[in-house]
Design goal:
The structure holds 8 protein chains of 8 kinds. By secondary structure, chain C is mainly alpha-helical. Chain C has 2 domains: 43 residues, no CATH class; 106 residues, no CATH class. In chain C, a hairpin with a 5-residue loop joins β2 and β3. By secondary structure, chain D is mostly helical. Helix content of chain D is 75%, strand content 0%. In chain D, α1 packs across α2 and α3 runs antiparallel to α4. The chains are: A mainly alpha (203), B mainly alpha (161), C mainly alpha (160), D mainly alpha (130), E mainly alpha (119), F mainly alpha (500), G mainly alpha (497), H mainly alpha (111). Chains in contact: A-B, A-D, A-E, A-G, A-H, B-C, B-D, B-E, B-G, B-H, C-E, D-G, D-H, E-H, F-G. Chains B and H meet through α1 and α2 of B and α3 of H.
């Protein structure tokens, strides 16, 4: 069951990445988020599912759509240039590499991805199985165990996630709130402008 | 953005808005008993305004959540959160030590309810910030997108065909 | 008045959702319901008279079983077509129902959409319905205006 | 070989998170469209969420909401990864929002959101200045 | 199994069947509008049935109230969404396929031009 | 930060302080040229007086010096007065007076721009010299050595023409590059090799005398250090010197006679005597490399000088070759040769400054820069050319001038250690020196002036003349009373034998 | 209240950042004093804590909500991060003073309040990264700092700034995701997020070091942080970001941001994985970082030589400078670490002053072309003097701060038998000397006929911070206390001498 | 009931799987959005089913057989999905409409 969901997720992820119409890609990304949330539910991570649904499928999609309206929704066929950066010092190289850039960036990225994937796969060798209740993460007496056994007496709420979120790790949550406020502030700074700033942009 | 023409969508969306808002508050209020909390509630609450803007146009949507108010509320939520932390600190405890809200040397039960109120307070803070921020994010993103059909503005989709 | 009605409706909804009856939750619920009612009771009642709204809901409840039956029956038809037992022959028809309120229009449009075989594609500014039907029969069924009549009865008069 | 396969099978959550992560990473690195990169970034981040949630799994567990009358054999899931991922999701949406705002400005400034074209314009600028 | 559970089983099975049929329709039908038929309502009905099937054995409780609420929402939102989709297609100028017009549009891979054709 | 205010202990710091005060004074009075130059001159005189006073105390056997500030343990700015230091300080501060005097005349005559910058950099340069001279450890010396490079750069680039910029570029590239690439790592190696508690303190008999580091490391350190001291102009790191000839003549004098190149050879002496120690170098055998380089430089430098037509360039190559006498003396590792080498610091300074003053005076008065244009000039500028002749004789090593004294000590040293090839080199170079100096004198005095020489041509401005006669006089005096330098040099080189 | 200094030091700038949009709405004039005041307090707080730690010799601990550490989140101030805190807060304070005028010029009016707020949040983020004792909290503050940095950079007037900010965002997010992965792997293995707790688990059982997930965790931390700190092959985002950012942003970000990430790497190495991981657990990682940092040290300044834009030149030089800091970790002995640690301060002071000068150039001419520096010495002697001192410090001229770091690094390198590092350091000094000299020559010895583009000295509000930073270059180079602090910090990290 | 719910869940998942190619291949934008919408609505049911399955699992482990309250958590989420999915669909379509309107306007202006 979980496996089926995971397969679906991979399918949707591929779709979101491959589809050239960005509007559709965004919509698919929304579906991907929903499916992800289903997976969270399967894994009993209710709060995460809730958030993922509200954010991934809701706000994130709407924001992306709004942005798409302003930037156009077609993806070009040219490649990326992120991987060019180590050589960016040599302008000449850059110009020669302009040819076949899509294919080159595809191969380069694939290589990087393979490297990262290999590293991560290597990392799984000694990992505890998924669902192992005896894994270190699940048995740490001062962390996971503490939250489960003591949160009711120490904090109160039935939802342990809320206790941890709001109290044990309340400071993280404050940081998180600041992050979202920061994002709003940053977007304000970037987008709420009068004519002068806009004209400067268009020069 | 001009108003949606189809009465079906208009009608349904309009009736849905209060339900969404109430649901958001429900999510906030029951974050302690089940999934949910300030963040989820905030996002859902904000999405009701998004829906309004989508269906009734940018201006109408913004009227429901005016710039002035969201601009103030967004930091206010954070300030509420951090303020609770500071109050704990001023009461002699550590930052965010809700138990101290009951005062020094309070009984266990009092501390317990202090924790409870602390949690509600910060969840409310989170919700306020998230709602206001999400509304801000959406309306700022959508600002120029919502011009009338007829107008061919420069921000639009370029000749990418 | 609208505020009170909205408040009551939302309060019922809240109690149904929440299920907690301890003071903290109730107080929070009251606050929430009040807040939402204050913010958007107009959305809920649409500015119309409260009494008619109630009546409409009641009539809608009566209308539902019929609609459900329609849906079930027509679904079978579409399923058969999906699996290729029967042919499909899509077409577009237009008609202009004689409805006075948005409520009625919405009821009709959604009913049409829910009934398999037909989808309300558009409602033009002057109230003309454009309907896409999967089969000629379905289109004809819409054009017989049985549903329109039902919708009108649910509507029970204009908004104004 | 069999070892490897059985290992992969027993850790298939992890295999899938790696797969998703690579899809996202590939999109970020290889796609020239700025919005597509953001989409890739989202996929990348959710893949990491999957990893975290998998860490906290307990076979046959139940959601970490306290439950009176819970049978002894049903453990609560580890709540900590959930908490962490809530934070990470928020961070993710914030980054998405800022990225989109930047893209909107870039489009306004350059008239395009394709990386190749932007760089070409930059280079033209640089030539014009020198 | 109690009687209620048997009824529930039947209802859920029906719902699942309807949903599967709807999914098949989305794949099999030749054009957007007809797919909309399959998706829009087979799904609505199927979902309604499955949810109903879930609620039946429980009887009246908060859970079934929530299920009812969800069903209600589905029955309001789904047709509206379907209508919105249809309307979107109509506004874009997507022409419905008609039986006598000839072959349905082929699923051409090159979707870059897909949309301009309708615009 | 430890600041010692005991005047006795902090004599060297005060000396530097005076120079820096002078800089401030010069900057403050930049709108009043006369006052500014007065300040400049006063500073020079006061500073020289202080150095003399310190010399007196030193001779009386007192130890002067202090640690000015300790950056980290082992790296400190500290001073101490010793024989080598006081010798260099005497040369530098003494000649600075004359050089300042000369500059006043020269700069005024030329109506040069940016004179304030000129004088302040001049003063900083001398402060750097003082600092380096009295440094009690390698780090301080290095610091002041760098400071000197940096503050003379504005002097070299003074004209800010393209040639000046190119010359200055070469100047700074060579000096800064060499010290960064070689001296700094050398210093670092020395620090590491100096023992369990790393130190850079100079010591009689050598800081590294008891080092346990490997021979390779020490040898490498020595070679790097010598290469790093590119100011000493040994080939192949010499080409900055002719390039820096674009500077105004007082600067050239400063570079060649007083400060810069002397700082280089002074550094080599420090390295040889007080860092490595003669014994250790003898064991290592790396000094031979320096010896050969010096021999090579002496001969080749002279040969190149022979074909130069530009007077200042000819003098520059002469400097290159003459400096190598000093290195030669040091590298022979024989006490007597060491005396010759170290004493030559002083003797060469007075002689070479005379020559430069003369060249500058000719330029000021006659606007002539080429050797071939000097026909008959001796008759018009007799004092200048007389001084020039004295300087030239000293360079060649003929009595009654200073040059012969040091050369004599060198020869003695070479004989002592039986380095016959060195003797040959000395002989050849003497001949070559004669070959490129005497024709100038001959031209000046015994060839008729070319047609069309302006009849008004006479001596340079008075300050110039005073300065150059002063230095010429000093050159002569040093022949008759060489003890001042020779005694100090003997103390440095550890020479205990009798006098010639 | 002193007991609460750790949290107040972070919270006051954060609070100021939160309040600023509210107060700025009432009165725009209050914005600047508020920023200066908040950062002044942070500076005071961090220095107070540093002095405290240095005199008592014990780290300050603070736990939030009164929860013991692995259960809750905590702060920890020791010598090393006390130094970094003081550096960030000090740089923030000076930047906030400095930016009064440039912000008026470069940031559009209606966005300025928000700009200040974002700036303060960025400071708070950096401070939070540095002080925290919880790895996930580190991530959260890293993101606050990153998001704000992206925008601070993108606020540059030219469109290139937007793209630079965007590239940084993408690359930085990948880096942050990698860090998150690293945290996840660690959490999986140890079940804890408290740094001290994880460290004690590793110390209790060093066989953990051989596990593949622990190694992967370290690898991802390394790559993620290397991206954030722009270590050599991963520095691609940096030059454009520094070049096109508005001057106040580039001043602050250049003097702190990469170093905060470098500090995070120190903390991960010594405070989370433990020293033994580097010496015994996975010694190969040292080789890799050694190669990366050596390459950075040589290539950064080498590339900088060719740049025609002052800010870009400085950016490439930063690439090299971060290599010095990372070298300290590689060498793993007291001398090397001392060199690395004092370089946090030294580089902040030198790069800060240089960016002050670049900012002054932009302030006066509107662009940052190196050629516009010609003749600045005559018209703006103070600024030029700062440039000279800071340039010398970059080169490593004795008596300036830069010299000491190099000296100790070289000593450490010899001690660790990485002899080739010494020529690497020398080569880098030479390359640095070349570009610094090129700049200085233009400033002081421009050809006569060049009319200086910088017509006059900058206002005092810009001059004082620049002079303070320039003076810091000298003070750090002349006084032993910064080295003493760094050495104590290095010893406290537990490396053998 | 557990098996019935599980089978239903698998059926719904297969339904999603069947629709997936539409999302990937289109051919038109609207087809994709349709597919996405279908997936979204199916998710609601999926969630409800998962909730019930979870509860039934704990019942099998010995929990009280009538304690379905924990399914309510899942239903809460499902309800949120219903709302969010609706908003998202409306949003997509509104934007398509705006885009089409712009394209039309441009054509009109251009011609």
């Amino acid at each position: 069951m979980t496996l089926l969901t995971l397969l679906l997720l991979v399918g949707l992820a591929v779709a979101a990445v491959r589809v050239r119409d960005l509007l559709a890609a965004t919509a698919i990304l929304g579906a991907y988020s929903l499916m992800m949330a289903v997976l969270w539910c399967q894994m009993n991570a209710l709060d995460v599912a809730f958030t993922e649904a509200a954010v991934g499928a809701g706000i994130s999609t709407v924001l992306m759509l709004s942005a798409l309206l302003r930037v156009g929704a077609k993806e070009g066929r040219r490649g990326s240039h992120i991987l060019r950066h180590p050589l960016m010092t040599m302008q000449e190289l850059a110009t020669t590499m302009r040819r076949n850039e899509a294919r080159r960036s595809a191969w380069g990225s694939a290589l990087v991805c393979l490297l990262v994937g290999a590293a991560l796969l290597y990392g799984t060798i000694d990992m505890p199985r998924v669902g192992d209740a005896e894994s270190p993460a699940n048995t740490h007496t001062k962390v996971a165990e503490h939250y489960i056994t003591k949160s009711h007496d120490e904090v109160g709420p039935a939802n342990i996630v809320t206790s941890v979120l709001g109290d044990y790790r309340g400071y993280d949550t404050m940081g998180e709130t600041c992050v979202i406020f920061t994002a709003a502030l940053c977007v304000l700074l970037l987008l709420r402008q009068t004519g002068t700033a806009r004209r400067r942009d268009e020069d | 953005m001009r108003t949606e023409k189809s009465p079906v969508i208009r009608y349904v969306a309009l009736r849905a808005v209060p339900f969404i808002q109430l649901y958001a508050l429900y999510v906030l209020g029951h974050g302690e008993d089940g999934p949910g909390g300030g963040f989820q509630g905030g996002v859902i609450f904000a999405s009701s305004f998004v829906l309004m803007a989508l269906v009734y146009g940018y201006g109408t949507g913004r009227k429901g959540a005016p710039e002035k108010i969201t601009d103030i509320l967004a930091p206010a939520g954070c300030v509420l959160y951090a303020g609770i932390g500071l109050i704990c600190l001023l009461m002699g405890g550590a930052f965010l030590e809700y138990g101290r809200l009951a005062g020094e040397g309070a009984s266990e039960a009092a501390k317990h309810s202090a924790h409870h109120f602390g949690l509600i307070g910060i969840e409310a803070g989170v919700m306020i910030t998230v709602t206001a921020s999400m509304i801000t994010l959406f309306f700022e993103m959508a600002r120029d997108a919502h011009v009338d059909h007829g107008q061919d503005d420069d921000d639009g989709e370029d000749d990418d065909a | 008045m609208g505020f009170v009605v909205a408040w009551i409706m939302l309060a019922v909804l809240w109690l149904g959702l929440s299920g907690f009856t301890d003071p903290v939750h109730l107080v929070f619920g009251a606050v929430s319901v009040t807040l939402v009612s204050a913010l958007s009771h107009r959305h809920l009642t649409g500015g119309g008279s409260v009494g008619r709204g109630m009546a409409r809901l009641l009539r809608l409840a009566l209308y539902m079983p019929w609609l459900l039956w329609q849906i079930a029956a027509a679904n079978l038809d579409v399923m058969l077509r999906i699996f290729g037992v029967r042919e499909i022959d899509p077409c577009v028809v237009r008609f202009k129902p004689d409805l006075e309120s948005d409520f009625g229009r919405v009821t009709l449009a959604n009913s049409i959409t829910l009934t398999p075989g037909t989808v309300t594609v558009d409602i033009t500014d002057d109230g003309e319905y454009i309907i896409h039907a999967l089969t000629r029969e379905a289109a004809d069924a819409v054009l017989t205006r049985v549903m329109e009549a039902k919708a009108r009865s649910v509507e029970g008069g204009s908004d104004a | 070989m069999l070892d490897v396969l059985s290992h992969l099978w027993s850790h298939y959550h992890y295999v899938f998170y790696i797969l998703l992560m690579l899809i996202g990473l590939y999109a970020v690195l290889a796609k020239g469209n700025l919005v597509k990169k953001v989409i890739g970034l989202n996929v990348l981040q959710t893949a990491v969420f999957l990893f975290y949630i998998s860490i906290g799994r307990k076979a046959g567990g139940t959601a970490p909401v306290l439950w009176e009358g819970k049978p002894e054999t049903v453990p609560y899931e580890n709540p900590l990864p959930h908490v962490l991922m809530l934070t990470a999701i928020v961070v993710g949406v914030s980054i998405t929002a800022v990225a989109l705002a930047l893209i909107i400005r870039i489009k306004r400034g350059y008239g395009t959101i394709e990386e190749g074209e932007i760089l070409a314009l930059d280079e033209a600028d640089a030539r014009g200045e020198s | 199994m109690t009687v209620l559970e048997i009824i529930a089983t039947v209802v859920i099975a029906l719902g699942a069947l309807v949903m599967l049929a709807g999914a098949a329709g989305v794949v099999r039908f030749p054009d957007f509008y007809s797919r909309l038929h399959a998706a829009g309502k087979a799904d609505t009905l199927g979902q309604g049935l499955i949810l109903l099937g879930l609620a039946i054995p429980i009887g009246l409780s908060l859970i079934s109230f929530k299920i009812a609420l969800i069903i209600l929402f589905i029955f309001i939102f789904n047709p509206t969404a379907t209508h919105a989709l249809a309307r979107g297609a109509w506004t874009l100028g997507l022409k419905p396929w008609e039986k006598h017009q000839g072959e349905p549009r082929t699923d051409d891979e090159d979707d870059d031009h897909g949309e301009e054709d309708h615009a | 930060m430890i600041l010692a205010f005991d005047l006795l202990a902090s004599g060297p710091s005060v000396s530097i302080g005076i120079c820096l005060l002078g800089v401030l004074g010069i900057l403050a009075t930049r709108r009043m040229p006369n006052v500014r130059e007065g300040v400049s001159l006063t500073t020079a005189v006061v500073n020289f007086g202080l150095v003399l006073w310190m010399y007196g105390r030193f001779q009386a056997g007192e130890t002067l010096g202090s640690t000015l500030l300790e950056i980290v343990p082992g790296l400190e700015i500290g001073f101490r007065v010793d024989a080598l230091g006081i010798l260099f300080a005497l040369v530098a501060s003494g000649l600075w007076i004359l050089n300042t005097l000369y500059s006043i005349g020269y700069m005024r005559a030329h109506e040069e721009p940016r004179q304030t910058r000129f004088y302040s950099c001049f003063a900083i340069a001398i402060a750097a010299c003082m600092g380096a001279a009295f440094s009690s450890n390698l780090f301080s010396m290095f610091a002041f050595y760098e400071l000197l490079t940096i503050c003379t750069y504005p002097l070299v680039i003074h004209a800010q023409t393209d040639t000046a910029r190119a010359g200055a570029k070469r100047y700074v590239t060579y000096l800064l590059g060499a010290s960064l690439c070689f001296l700094l790592p050398a210093m670092f190696l020395i620090w590491q090799a100096s023992g369990a508690v790393p130190s850079l303190q100079f010591a009689e008999g050598g800081l590294l005398a008891s080092s346990t580091a490997s021979g390779f490391t020490l040898g490498l350190a020595f070679l790097l250090a010598v290469a790093g001291l590119a100011k000493c102009g040994v080939m192949p790191l010499h080409s900055w010197l002719p390039a820096a000839m674009v500077a105004p003549t007082p600067v050239s004098a400063l570079l060649h006679a007083v400060a810069v190149v002397k700082m280089g050879v002074f550094g080599v002496c420090r390295i040889v005597f007080h860092v490595f120690g003669v014994d250790l170098l003898g064991r290592l055998g790396v000094a031979d490399v320096l010896l050969y380089a010096a021999c090579f430089t002496i001969v080749v430098g002279s040969l190149v000088a022979l074909v130069q037509d530009n007077l200042k360039r000819r003098l520059a190559y002469s400097t290159i070759s003459q400096l190598s006498y000093i290195l030669l003396g040091v590298a022979l590792l024989a006490p007597a040769a060491g005396v010759g080498g170290v004493a030559h610091i002083g003797f060469h300074a007075v002689s070479k400054i005379t020559l430069f003053f003369a060249a500058g005076a000719i330029y000021v008065a006659a606007h002539k820069t080429k050797v071939s244009e000097l026909d008959g000039i001796g008759r018009r500028m007799p004092i200048t050319m007389a001084a020039f002749t004295i300087g030239a004789l000293s360079m060649i090593g003929l009595p009654p001038t200073a040059g012969i004294v040091s050369k004599w000590w060198l020869v003695r040293g070479a004989v002592e250690v039986e380095q016959w090839p060195v003797l040959a080199v000395l002989l050849i170079s003497t001949l070559l020196n004669a070959g490129y100096f005497l024709p100038i004198v001959w031209r000046a005095f015994f060839r008729p002036s070319p047609e069309g020489t302006p009849s008004g041509l006479k001596e340079a401005p008075l300050p110039c003349v005073i300065a150059l006669s002063g230095t010429a006089l000093l050159t002569l005096l040093c022949f008759f009373y060489p003890d001042l330098f020779v005694d100090l040099a003997a103390e440095v080189a550890g020479y205990e034998g009798g006098r010639p | 209240m002193v007991a609460h200094l750790p949290v107040l030091t972070i919270m006051i700038p954060l609070f100021a950042g939160l309040f600023m949009p509210l107060l700025g709405r009432l009165n725009r004039a209050i914005v600047w004093p508020l920023a200066v005041g908040a950062l002044g307090f942070a500076t005071f707080g961090s220095i107070h804590m540093l002095v405290d730690v240095a005199t008592t010799g014990e780290a300050i601990h603070y736990s939030f909500g009164g929860w013991a550490l692995p259960t809750g989140i905590g702060y920890r101030v020791d010598l090393l991060n006390g130094m970094v805190l003081a550096m960030i807060a000090g740089a923030g304070l000076l930047t906030s003073i400095w930016m009064l005028r440039p912000a008026q010029k470069e940031i559009p009016d209606e966005g300025r309040t928000s700009y200040y707020a974002v700036f303060l949040l960025c400071c708070a983020g950096f401070l939070g990264i540095t002080i925290t004792a919880d790895i996930f909290n580190l991530y959260v503050f890293l993101e606050i700092a990153s998001i704000t940095s992206y925008v601070l950079i993108a606020m540059g007037g030219r469109r290139q700034a937007l793209y630079a900010g965007y590239s940084y965002l993408i690359v930085g997010s990948i880096g942050a995701t990698f860090i998150l992965l690293g945290i996840g792997h660690l959490y999986m293995r140890t079940g804890s997020l408290g740094m001290a707790d994880i460290l004690s688990q590793f110390q209790a059982d060093t066989s953990l070091y051989t596990l593949s997930d622990v190694r992967t965790a370290f690898a991802f931390f390394t790559v993620g942080l290397a991206i954030k700190m722009a270590l050599f092959p991963l520095h691609g985002w940096q030059p454009s970001a520094y070049t096109y950012a508005p001057s106040p942003s580039s001043l602050f970000i250049a003097s702190t941001s990469t170093k905060v990430s470098a500090y995070a790497f120190y903390r991960i190495c010594f405070g989370v994985f433990g020293l033994a991981f580097l010496t015994d657990g996975l010694p190969e990682i040292r080789q890799i970082v050694l190669v990366m940092s050596s390459a950075a040290i040589v290539l950064g300044p080498l590339i900088a030589i060719r740049q025609g834009d002052l800010k870009r030149l400085l950016a490439y030089s930063s690439v090299g400078q971060i290599g010095y800091i990372m070298l300290g970790v590689v060498l793993l002995n007291v001398d090397g670490l001392t060199g690395g640690i004092i370089h946090f301060w030294n580089h902040a002071a030198a790069k800060g002053s240089l960016f002050c000068v670049a900012g002054a150039l932009v302030f006066r001419t509107g662009s940052s072309r190196v050629s516009d520096l010609a003749g600045m010495g005559r018209r703006a002697p103070w600024t030029s003097a700062v440039l000279t001192v800071a340039g010398c410090s970059m080169v490593g001229v004795p008596m300036t701060a830069g010299f000491l770091s190099k000296w100790y690094l070289a000593a450490g390198a010899l001690e660790a038998d990485y002899v080739f590092v010494v020529p690497v350091l020398i080569a880098s000094s030479v390359f640095t000397a070349i570009y610094v000299w090129r700049v200085l020559q233009l400033v002081w010895f421009a050809p006569k006929d060049v009319e200086p583009a910088v017509t006059s000295e900058v206002p005092w509000s810009m001059r004082i911070p620049a002079l303070a930073l320039g003076a810091a270059c000298l003070v750090f180079g002349l006084t032993p206390w910064s080295v003493d602090l760094a050495r104590s910090a290095a010893v406290a990290l537990g490396v053998g001498s | 009931m557990h098996d019935v719910h599980l089978l239903a869940l698998i059926a719904v998942l297969i339904g999603v799987l069947v629709v997936l190619p539409r999302a990937i291949r289109g051919p038109t934008l609207l087809d994709r959005i349709l597919a996405v919408n279908v997936i979204g609505t199916k998710t609601i049911v999926l969630l409800a089913l998962i909730g019930f399955l979870r509860v039934e699992h704990t019942i099998a482990e010995g929990a009280a057989a009538d304690d379905y309250s924990r399914a309510g958590f899942f239903l809460d989420i499902a309800l949120a999905y219903a709302l969010i999915n609706f908003i998202a669909t409306i949003a997509v379509l509104r934007y398509i409409e705006i885009r089409a309107g712009r394209a039309k306007a441009r054509e009109g202006g251009g011609a």
